[in-house]
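Can't paste images in this forum, so I'm doing it all in text. The chain is below; anyone willing to post the predicted structure tokens underneath?
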Amino acid sequence: SSVWIWLAEIKQWYQRRVRESHITVWGCKSDLSRVVAFTGLQALVKKIPSFLGDLLKKMYVEYTKCSKAMNIKTRDNIVLMRNCLVELFKINPSVTYTTGFLYIRQLAVTVRSVVVSKKEIESVYNWQYINCLHVWVAVLADCDACLQPLIFPLIQVMLKVLDLHSSPCYFPLHLHTIRMMLHLAASTDNHIPLLHPLLACLNFCANQNKAPASKPIDLTCVLKVTKGYKKTKAYQDGVFDLSFELILNYVSQLSQSIAFPEASFPVCVWLRKFNKSCNNSKYTSQIKQILEKTEAVSRDITDRRSGVSFSPRDLEEAKKWEDALPESVLTKFFNSWLKVHRSVLAANQAAATENGEEDEDEGEEEENEESSGLESAEEEAAKAEEEPPKKKKKKLVEKKEKKEMKVKKKGDGKETTVKKNDGTEKKKKKKKVVTEVTEDAEDMVEDIVLSD
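Text version of the structure:
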């Protein structure tokens, strides 16, 4: 019996080692090795379901370590790791609930510590925290009924993240969070009040900035900008584009509701105010498109529901009526605009990557030129070392004689007096300028090489 116990312990130790090694490979930078490690972990969990809880925790910790920085190069790797985690979380909803409750509570405690004890806001406003929110939004967007109680706490955490700081420097982070909440609201059929944070970002673009022009940056990989860049036209254009997309998404989600005329009324009021105060014709023309289509959908739904026989209390009947509605003009406009916008972004990203590769090629050419110069210098030094010692001695004697002749030619400085405007006298030494400075420097270099 002791032999069987010993063999069982060895088997468990071996399984543990396999699991840990696969997790470390999954956290590396190579996409191919990451996919291979994930398939191995998925097969291991199917054979040994008891490993799922510990595996999810360790993979989540590894994901948080790898998601501390976000840029164009690392974005695809982080998204791949996130998708792998979401696939494993779908295996067992009960285990996912316990793990999700633990880590969502941890995110809430971090936000609360910033609010209560007034700690540094960087503990929340960083890529590690935002990428953790991305994971739980993706998990709860397509979840079973047992995971739905976690949706409300997660929404409260994200709303509190928006309230921590209202500076325009943090508008990219606000827009990231709003996008996540809109995705969660559309997937779970819930309404999240996001009008106020969206209009705060839009009102920032009302007054035209007159700062010097600068290169636009990809706000999808940025959480915060500097105070100097905040005043540039490129940043204002980026914030407006993202705000326009999210407002259009928000209104298109409401357009399939029976209460759209009432829900869209404050949106129309705020957008009209923006058009009156904005000086940019490009912005006002785009906002005008949303206003026209919103008002058209509002009139259409008002006409359709005028002949309804059920009351607002009959939620089932209202749900059936909403399901029978055709696709609204706002939804069609949003889908077509999103296709065009994504194609433009893809073209810009491709151009940016090509420019980056050209810069890398230029850097490699410069390095090759420097290395060739170093090699030629080394060859000359080697040739100097290969010369016979007699020639070296002759050269040293000739150098010393030249230096002695130069020292004799140099005269001592004479003191003279110079009168200033105020009558004071100042002594000044006249020194002869040595015209052969370059020759002296070359002689010193040759002396060093020969002495070695």
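DSSP finds 17 helices and two strands in the chain. Residues 369-378, 380-392, 409-442, 444-452 have pLDDT under 50 and may be disordered.
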